[in-house]
Amino acid sequence: MLRLEILVSLVLLGLCSGDERVIGGTEAQPNSWPWQVSLQGYAGYWYHTCGGTLILKRWVLTAAHCVDSAGVSYRVVLGDHNIYADDKTEQYIFVQNIIIHEGWTGDLAVGNDIALLYLANDAVLNQYVQFGVLPNADATLPNNYPCYVTGWGYTRSGGTVNPTLQQAPIKVVAFEVCSEPAWWGHYVTRNMVCAGGDGIVAGCQGDSGGPLNCQRDGVFEVHGATSFVAAAGCDTYMKPTVWTRVSSYITWINNKIGLHQTGL
C-alpha cells in the first residue's frame, strides 16, 4: 500500500489521495525518462510506493520518507512504463542497502528528506535505462524556470496510482516566493525547491522520491526528489509541490557512495 502521512498542513508524497496520474499531466512517451525508477515494497505482493532516480549502476536516489519504515523489503524497477503490465523493457533489482540522511527526523519543515539505495546488482544501461544527470553543487533555478514532474502518482487528490508513467510541465517557484507566508512560509528551507502552485499541475501520492527534471544547456538534470504537498489537496493553489533540492546534497551523495565503495 502507499504511504500517507499528514503533519499540520503537509502530506508526504509516499502516497495525496479516481483516474490517476501526475495532476494536470499526460501519459509520457514510453521510456522517455529512462532514469525514472518505480520503487516497490513487498506485502505478500509487490506494490508501487514511490519514484526514484537511477544515478549510477547500483545507486538510486529517492526520498527518505519512502524507505524509513522498518522491516519492509524493497526492489526497484528500471525501464518501466506500465507498472501493471510486462513492457519487455523492465529490469527488476532488489535493494541491498538503504542510506537515509542523518538529518532526516520525519519533520518535513526540517527537511533532509533524501536517501540513497544501493542495489544488489548492476543496472544494465540501454535505450530504456539511463542515468539521471545531477546538477552542480548548490545550483539553483530562477523563478518560473520550466521543468517536468514525472511519476505514477495520483492524478487528483483522493485517487489511486496510475498504471502508466505520467509527465507534466511545471514551473519553479523561487525560495523568495515560496517562503512567503501566503505560500509555504517557514515550512520550506533553501534545501528545498518548490514548483507548481497554480492549482492545476502538481505531484501527488505515489510520486514521492521521483525526479524534478529541468533542462539546462540541452541536458535534463534532476533538481529534486519529490517530498510533500498540502494536505488540503495536492493541487492546492499557492501550495506548490516541494522537492528536496538535490544540489544541496551533492557532497553528501558523493561522500556516502565513496564510503560505501571503500567498505567504511
TrEMBL record:
It holds the Pfam family Trypsin. It catalyses: Hydrolysis of proteins, including elastin. Preferential cleavage: Ala-|-Xaa. The keyword Disulfide bond applies. CDD domains: Tryp_SPc. It is found in: Secreted. InterPro entries: Peptidase_S1_Elastase_sf (IPR050850), Peptidase_S1_PA (IPR009003), Peptidase_S1_PA_chymotrypsin (IPR043504), Peptidase_S1A (IPR001314), Trypsin_dom (IPR001254), TRYPSIN_HIS (IPR018114), TRYPSIN_SER (IPR033116). One of its GO terms (molecular function) is metal ion binding. It is an enzyme of class 3 (hydrolase). Its EC number is 3.4.21.36. GO terms for cellular component: extracellular space. It comes from the Eukaryota. This is pancreatic elastase. It comes from Scyliorhinus torazame.
